[in-house]
């Protein structure tokens, strides 16, 4: 207990002794992680937007015109029994014609000229939330296409694919930038710790000679790195939140994107905590890199 | 307690120790004499594995120091107290904190640390300076604090490298008396020095190094 108190006190003393270096390290880490955070925030919001859009996706299952009413019931039962299907609405040929006439009154004469109703009966299917991913929708549509009595399955595949591509691209960019900037954060903290190690090399040498173990010597510096990383990360979240609120305020003022502004979201507390933990981990890694290179810190 | 068998060491192809074989028994007080560059510090450094010989074997307290795993080195150093010419005290820590350090690294309880540090400070006569920083002490007091730190955890061996190098003759005599007291309590003491004043005050076994070689032994005459 006394040893732990000593190690914590040493970390605190290290940071206080090198106040300027510590502040610079926290600020640069915060700015670096804030850059990663911007992409992450964009990604989180686009994912949320994609979720809302996919909720609205309806799949049209068109039935064969020659299908007897018994067979229509069979298809309906089959669809209702499918766990991927969230809700189902039957639209008869007559309803389809009625809707067409309502939606396109000026074009209705085109159908009248044909003598018979060319529009097929259909089911409008909304999938359960677990089956709304682009791949799942595609797989489901392909499977239903094989059902006897189904002539065509239609949904806005292009739109879903485009959205998936955009999300994947942002994901890749966020990962790429995240990796590069995280490496930068590790380097910044590693250099700060290296300065501290250099400034305290005599003290480290004394500790070695009086029988301190390697971990006893290293722990204060590892703690210091971890604290720098966590504080940098927390500060980056404060900066991001400030920028986020400023952006929302701007949108509210212009009034053009009122709906979009309502849909925007900041990181939930769990993600905030996870990001602080990531900062802590990066700081720890930075310290570790420095200590490994600085041979004096070995017992 | 200490045994060196055909130990040799070179730095940049210049011999620091050449084929040194010696034995120091439990409870002995030995002076390691020789001019600067004779290899005294190299020998002491090897006893705490701050350096390794190129050839030969070193045993301290029945442990082969030469083959010691790095993770076991701190445990060797806890059995061997070290006193330096330049004291090597932590400037921002009080006398008490400096002396407590060897106990702290071993995870000893606060009550035991208080008791042992007080005893060590009392033994070297600087108990009244416990809350001061090293900068506020005289050189003799700083060396006493350094000795207190070396003996606080009851080492089996005490090594002192030129402990009186920065002290005047009166202080030298006081420090040597302290070493004698520590030795009288059963601790093996090895003092490396080139100071004839020290030899004059100690009627003990003398090992002399010259250009890395051990010369035939004699006793110092007090």
Structural summary, described in words:
- The complex is a heterodimer of chains A (299) and B (222).
- Chain A is 73% helix and 8% strand.
- Chain A is α+β, with helices and mostly antiparallel strands and 299 residues long.
- Chain A has a four-stranded antiparallel sheet.
- With 222 residues, chain B is of the alpha/beta class.
- Chain B has seven helices and eleven strands.
- In chain B, a hairpin with a 2-residue loop joins strand 9 and strand 10 (213-214).
- In chain B, helix 3 (95-104) packs parallel to helix 5 (139-151), helix 4 (110-124) packs across helix 5 and helix 5 packs parallel to helix 6.
- Chain B starts with a strand and ends with a strand.
- Chain A binds chain B through residues 2-3, 6, 13, 202-203, 205-214, 216, 298-299, and chain B through 48, 50, 70-71, 73-78, 82, 88, 90, 92, 101-102, 104-110, 113, 149.
Short summary of the structure?
The complex is a heterodimer of chains A (299) and B (222). With 299 residues, chain A is α+β, with helices and mostly antiparallel strands.
């Amino acid at each position: 207990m006394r040893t732990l108190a000593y190690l914590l006190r040493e970390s605190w003393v290290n940071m206080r002794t090198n106040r300027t270096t510590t502040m610079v390290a926290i600020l640069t880490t915060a700015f670096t992680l804030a850059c990663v955070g911007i992409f992450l925030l964009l990604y989180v919001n686009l994912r949320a937007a994609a979720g809302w859009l996919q909720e609205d996706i309806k799949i049209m299952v068109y039935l064969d015109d020659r299908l007897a009413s018994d067979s229509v019931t069979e298809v309906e039962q089959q669809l209702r029994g499918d766990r991927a299907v969230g809700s189902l609405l039957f639209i008869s040929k007559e309803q389809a014609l009625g809707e067409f006439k309502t939606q396109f009154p000026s074009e209705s004469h085109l159908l009248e000229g044909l003598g018979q109703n060319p529009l097929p009966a259909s089911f409008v299917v909304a999938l359960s939330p677990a089956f709304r991913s682009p791949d799942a929708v595609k797989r489901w549509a392909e499977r239903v296409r094989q059902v006897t009595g189904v002539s065509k399955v239609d949904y806005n595949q292009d739109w879903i694919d485009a959205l998936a591509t955009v999300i994947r691209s942002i994901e890749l960019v966020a990962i790429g930038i995240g990796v590069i900037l995280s490496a930068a954060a590790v380097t910044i903290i590693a250099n700060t710790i290296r300065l501290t190690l250099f400034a305290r090399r005599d003290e480290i040498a004394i500790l070695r000679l009086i029988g301190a173990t390697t971990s006893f010597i290293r722990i204060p510096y590892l703690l210091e790195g971890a604290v720098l990383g966590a504080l940098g990360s927390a500060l980056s979240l404060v900066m991001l939140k400030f920028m986020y609120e400023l952006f929302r305020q701007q949108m509210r003022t212009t009034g053009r994107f009122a709906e979009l502004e309502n849909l925007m979201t900041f990181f939930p507390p769990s993600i905030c905590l996870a990001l602080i933990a990531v900062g802590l981990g990066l700081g720890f890694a930075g310290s570790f890199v420095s200590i490994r290179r600085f041979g004096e810190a070995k017992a | 307690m200490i045994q060196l068998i055909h130990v040799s060491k070179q730095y940049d192809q210049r011999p620091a120790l050449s084929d040194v074989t010696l034995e120091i028994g439990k409870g002995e007080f030995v002076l390691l004499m020789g001019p600067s560059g004779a290899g005294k510090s190299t020998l002491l450094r090897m006893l705490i594995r701050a350096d390794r010989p190129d050839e030969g074997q070193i045993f301290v307290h029945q442990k082969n120091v030469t083959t010691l795993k790095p993770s076991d080195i701190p445990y060797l150093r806890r059995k061997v107290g070290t006193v330096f010419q330049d004291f090597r005290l932590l400037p921002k820590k009080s006398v008490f904190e400096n002396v407590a350090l060897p106990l702290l690294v071993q995870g000893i309880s606060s009550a035991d640390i208080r008791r042992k540090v007080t005893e060590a400070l009392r033994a070297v006569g600087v108990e009244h300076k416990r809350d001061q920083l090293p900068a506020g002490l005289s050189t003799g007091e700083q060396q006493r604090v350094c000795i207190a730190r070396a003996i606080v955890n009851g080492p089996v061996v005490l090594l002192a490298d030129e402990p009186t190098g920065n002290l005047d003759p009166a202080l030298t005599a006081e420090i040597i008396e302290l070493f004698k007291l520590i030795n009288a309590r059963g601790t093996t003491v090895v003092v490396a020095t080139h100071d004839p004043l020290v030899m004059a005050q100690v009627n003990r076994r003398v090992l002399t190094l010259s250009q890395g070689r051990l010369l035939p032994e004699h006793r110092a005459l007090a």
